[in-house]
Amino acid sequence: MITRFTERDWETDETDGSIRFALVGLGWWTMDVVVPAIEQSDYCETTVLVSSSTEKAERLADENNVESGITYDEFHDGAAVEKYDAVYIGTPNAYHLDYVETAADLEKAVLCEKPLEATVERAEQLVEAADEADIPLMTAYRMHTEPAVRRAKELIEDGFIGEPTHVYGNNTQPILEMIPDPDQWRLDSDVTGYGTSVMDLGIYPINTARFLLERDPIAAEARMSSPDEAFDDVPDQYATVTLTLEGDLPLVCTTSQHAQQDTQLKIIGTEGTIELQPAFHGEATLHLARGSTRATIEDAEYTAVEEMREEFDYFADRVLNDNAILPDGHHGLADLRTIEAIHEAADRDERVDLSE
Amino acid sequence: MITRFTERDWETDETDGSIRFALVGLGWWTMDVVVPAIEQSDYCETTVLVSSSTEKAERLADENNVESGITYDEFHDGAAVEKYDAVYIGTPNAYHLDYVETAADLEKAVLCEKPLEATVERAEQLVEAADEADIPLMTAYRMHTEPAVRRAKELIEDGFIGEPTHVYGNNTQPILEMIPDPDQWRLDSDVTGYGTSVMDLGIYPINTARFLLERDPIAAEARMSSPDEAFDDVPDQYATVTLTLEGDLPLVCTTSQHAQQDTQLKIIGTEGTIELQPAFHGEATLHLARGSTRATIEDAEYTAVEEMREEFDYFADRVLNDNAILPDGHHGLADLRTIEAIHEAADRDERVDLSE
User: Fold this and answer.
1) How far is B92 from chain A (nearest CA, A)?
2) N or C, which end of chain A has less CB nearby within 10 Å?
3) Distance (Å, whole) CA B212 – CA B151
4) Which of A173, A224, A240 is the best substitution to test chain B (most B C-beta atoms within 10 A)?
5) Using the beta-carbon criterion (under 8 Å), do B168 and A225 form an inter-chain contact?
């Protein structure tokens, strides 16, 4: 376990070639995390940067030794189309659809940030656009290729925890301290979608638990509140969610954009526990317990950059070898349906069925 | 904080005398934890052991250098009454009332294990008996004098976490591995009361959060299931509870008597987090975070014996100095009302109001 902790069990032998990326949306995540991640990667390179103005795109391209910097409009018009193979979409949620539609027209593979879009309807259009053009589409759930998560999944499959009995996840951060602007897009329902905490943070424990346990939610209950003025436009400054996963397994999730940063995912079973704490913000430490034996494992090198490197190389590996992508568009769409149900449950103050 | 981690901030200066105890119910907790705890204590001694048979009581008294061993019947008849000042009740839940009534008749102070009784009605009678006889009555919540919990309470009062936003607690253990007997009293509703997991385990995070935050529950929601035959007589082999504490603060609690041992209490706030993990089974490690600073503090000596030593000395300190006891009978009764509401909420599948 320790000797192969960071092993790329997903990697195809003798992969040839590389994927050239156009990065759309040049916020801090793209520039400070994605660009260095691609520099570290085995199968990816950044060839085009896409932003709001020619000045910004060209300046950032120049500073980062990237071939081209173009505007959003130029991207939609097919500029530099011969210079990239795939598009990474790191814009605010409600703008994902437009870029995926263009990428589909241009027949480019797409790696799209989570949540897939602002609403279920727009995410459905997004997935349909990719399906119709037959382009590869991945939802950017980097926890799927985080080593601690992959080792946790193997342990669960090997029966380490026995039957799971409870799942708990927390994801909280102080967004107004991190980005001191009450008008930021994550607090604007037109751009973020259903809300801010579950869409941006709660989605981590919800998707990671679903990936680890291979169980989908069948019902949602939730309570939300937004007492502070900066959160007037979103219902979930604070949220507490209880999902019922297949097999009647409860997944409780607490989340807030207005609290101390803290991330945790705990899976309790009849025979053992598996816990990630911290779990989601570029650090993942794996805590194992079975009977009276405990172990803690982490890779000291890993940060968000290494997590994104693994995600990009996984995406490139799938595209170059024409293999199926696990967190594809349909996978990301399912989480958006769950999040819509969570908001509906909180709004109506009742359990919402997700079993169809 | 580190230099005074185990400080007895509750201790009265220059306390004279000591309290002689009759211990009622000689199971493993009493013999392996309480007897050595009293031996380590400053203000307590064990003078009488009370059990089902003369043979068992006298043998255990002899083995542990305790003055007298008497039967339950002899205790009720006032045997050895001049040899003890207070009674510790460590019997199964549904037998607490009888012993408290006798202690009240004999005008002895009482330290009674949690939960206070098997039902709200019996706990009310128990508290009334103590009140009418004007004897000191303490519910044996040892977390109230656990150093990590007391330091956590001071930090919360000092504003370390800001405003609390979410509370999560877990308490799970594999009771059938610890006591391999499907007929044990904790699985018998006549003796345990409303159920097994919330009554015996969930009560820890529920009471400790209430103590730390000084907020009472105003509503309860819960889901429970008992799929295995050994749990046929109790509804909560597995339970997930959401309480609303005063100030609309959610407290989520997961608990099971049929899972890997794991205990945790996490309090998230706008400015920091305070977490105990492990929390409840004789180990308490305090994890603090505020901004990007983290600290972990524990006392390497502490086990359940040291926790019980502190509890007994606290009780003796209060009784000898005629001071008010914090976790008194009314305090313990309130938790039983909460647990009754939790079971009612699970049974009716709806939110139960606790605000009166």
Assistant:
1) 25
2) C
3) 10
4) A240
5) no
**Chain B neighbors of A250, CB-CB under 8 A:** 223, 238, 240, 254
ipTM of the predicted structure? 0.94
End-to-end CA distance of chain B: 39
Q: Phi and psi at residue B228, in whole multiples of 5°?
A: -90, 145
Residue A169, H or E segment: strand A164-174
Rg (CA), chain B: 20
What residue has token string 């170059």? A320
Q: Which of B256, B269, B268, B204 is nearest to A277 (CA)?
A: B268
Which amino acid, one-letter code, is at A125? Q
Q: Is A53 exposed, middle or buried (0-12, 13-18, 19+ CB in 10 A)?
A: exposed
CATH 3.30.360.10 occupies which residues in chain B? 143-302+327-353
pLDDT confidence bin for B48, thresholds 50/70/90: very high
Q: What is the CATH number of domain A19-142?
A: 3.40.50.720
Q: Residue B108: name the closest of B142, B141, B70, B134 by CA.
A: B134
CB contact (8 A) between residue B170 and residue A223: no
Chain B residue with Cα closest to A177: B291
- CA B264, B269, B272, B273: dihedral to nearest 10 degrees? 0
For A71-107, how does the pLDDT look when each residue is reduced to its tens digit (9 = 90+)?
999 999 999 999 999 999 999 999 999 999 999 999 9
Provide the shortest C-alpha distance from residue A239 to chain B (in Å). 9
CB A220 within 8 A of CB A342: yes
Contacts of B87 (CB under 8 A, 6+ apart): B21, B22, B24, B99, B103, B108, B109, B110, B111
pLDDT of B354 higher than 90: yes
In chain A, list all ranges with CATH 3.40.50.720. 19-142
Question: How far is Cα A318 from Cα B185, in angstroms, rounded to an integer?
Answer: 56
Distance separating alpha carbons of residues A14 and A8, to the nearest angstrom: 13
A123's CB contacts (< 8 A; 6+ apart) are A97, A115, A116, A117, A329, A332, A333, A336
Q: Which residue has the tokens 């026995």?
A: A162
CB-nearest to B240 from A250, A254, A264 is A250
Q: Reply yes or no: is the peptide bond before residue A205 cis, omega within 30 of 0.
A: no
CATH of domain A143-302+327-353: 3.30.360.10
Residues of B in contact with A228 (CB under 8 A): none
Which chain A residues touch B if contact means CB-CB below 8 Å?
Answer: 161-162, 165-166, 168, 170, 172, 174, 221, 223, 225, 238, 240, 242, 248, 250, 252, 254, 256, 258-262, 264, 266, 268-273, 289-292
What average pLDDT does range A326-343 have in this prediction? 98
To the nearest 10°, the Cα dihedral for B18, B23, B27, B30? -10
The two tokens of residue A245 are: 């996963």
Q: What is the rounded distance in angstroms from the CA atom of residue B198 to the CA atom of residue A199?
A: 32
Q: Which of A168, A248, A269 sits opposite B259 (nearest CB)?
A: A269
- Residue among A165, A264, A289 whose CB faces B256 most closely: A165
Dihedral over alpha carbons B112, B118, B124, B125 (to 10 degrees): -80
